[in-house]
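Entry type: protein chain
Record version: 2
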Amino acid sequence: MLTDSFVSKDVRLDTWIRNLSNAYEHHILGLVSTTLIMHGGKLIGFYAARVGNLEVEEDEKKQLKGEAYIPSVEILYFVMHKDYEGQGIGSMTMMDLIADLIEANAYMAIRYLFCWSVDVPKTLHFYRNRGFDMMDTQQDGLRLMRFAIPDTRDIQLISEYNDDLLI
C-alpha cells in the first residue's frame, strides 16, 4: 500500500496516514482534504486541511467589534517522511499553500491559516521562520500556530519595485 513505508518522527501521524481509508472518507464527506506529497512514486509527506471558523482571542475580538469567530483554514496535520526532512520540500509545500490562500483571499475572506504543531523546538522554529505566531492554545501535546493571510492589496509584484528587472 502507498502509505506502508511512510515513517515520520511522530507515530500518531504515521498511524493516521496509514489508515488512508479515514483520510479518504473525510475527503469524500468534505470534512478534511488530505494532500499527498509524492516523489518518484513514493509518499514523502502530506498535509490535511479544512476551512472553518475559529474563535479569536479577546484582544482581537475587541478590534473586530465583537466578532468572535473568523474565517480561516486549519491544517490538522503537516508532516514529512523522516528521510526527507530538512531538504526544503516542506518549506516549498507550505509556501505554495500560503500563496494559494493569499490568492483565494482576493475573492473570499480567509483571515488566518492555523496549524497544530508538535511542541518541539525544531518544529516550532520551522513555523516561526515562515511567519507563524505561536498561540497560547495547546491540545493533546500540540500547539496552535497562526499565520495572518495578507490582503492582496497589501502585496505588490516584485516588478512593481524595479522597472529595470529583466523577466
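Comment: The two ends are 44 Å apart (CA to CA).
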